[in-house]
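Researcher: For the record, we're logging two predictions in this thread. I'll number them. Prediction 1 follows.
Model: Prediction 1, sequence and structure:
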Amino acid sequence: MKTETQIKIPEEAFDWYDAYAHGMMGRREFMDRLGSIAVGGLTMAMLTGALIPNYALAEQVSFNDEDIKATYATFPSPDGHGEGRGYLVQPSGLAEGGTAPAVLVVHENRGLNPYVKDVARRLAKAGFVAFAPDALHPLGGYPGNDDEGRSMQSSLDRSKIEADFIAAAHFLKGHGLSSGKLGVVGFCFGGYVSNFLAASLPDVIDAAVPFYGTPAGNDIVGNVKGPVMVQLAEMDERVNASWPPYEEVLKANGAKYEMHMYPGSRHGFHNDSTGRYVEEMANLAWGRTLEFFTENLS
């Protein structure tokens, strides 16, 4: 994939994509705005290719990698949509009857796309049992494209989605493959859910790593005990504005926390299927994530 430095994408295009990806701008307006800057050697194909995810580029660990075993599992969610379903990946070297620390993986605002499934495989290859639920399961699951997935997820009751992830956390914590230690990592909407679970289930979640996610609501954020590792992108004003008040709450709680700000990075910098991907920062953030889980879930 060509990088931003090769294509020289104007800064405002990334802002428009962020607004589009988070439901603050419709697709037609987004494409019209891109058309307004597609001049000279900068074509629409180049712009959309750099901004819109290409999931063929996002596979770092193959689904048939010999070091992992991937399948699907359902779980009860009586306070949510009745039943949830997710992608369950375990290290293939886990001895029969053996266990490993578990990590819940939470997708963005568009369902369980290939990038997030690959994140689950990366965790399993690193020795964790990973489970990535699909919030779109009540509607048939991730539809294969982000536009439809985003629309589907926005049509669901937010409180029921949150209840589904609470149920998923309990399911994974008590799973036969789990050592009983549970972490959560999520991206964008999933970053919010990671913070939400740390506040909703402070005695269940043993470590949380929200990537560019906003904190839980004021009614529960005071419950967070940590440990929490907050991963933020320098060029992400919308999410970063929520950090100072969140940090004040964490300090008041006496919560164990750390925050890392990644210079020159935008919201979504860990997602290697888009032009927002910053390989150096993504690798640094992921290395810190694995170290954090190893330290706190052992």
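Researcher: Logged. Prediction 2.
Model: Prediction 2, sequence and structure:
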Amino acid sequence: MKSYRKELWLQAPARRSFILITPQVEDCLRESGIREGLCLVNAMHISASVFINDNESGLHHDFEKWLEKLAPEKPHSQYAHNSGEDNADAHLKRTIMGREVVVAVTGGQLDFGPWEQIFYGEFDGLRRKRVLVKIIGE
């Protein structure tokens, strides 16, 4: 069995944003040479997420509104975590959206359902962060 590992570095243009990373993950799969196996993609920061969903701007807007209702950024004083920090909401949003995804690799391709794409969700941005891509298989 082969194993491949690569870190993708991202810098979101805003405190919160969703970034399509499917093309970068597909590049990793091509580099790996793995044709059958599994591809793990995970955020390596506690205030960021990796998830699979539709690449549709209205849905992303709905995610943003929904997450802000569940864990509003302000007032910062509402969170015990925010003594000296201001990102408790980002930790909660990450928990809701998830840390990682695993996608089957079949015939050298990510084995997606219709409309599925991989996204990086940033909830405390404006600095560089990493996403790990780990692919195992034959």
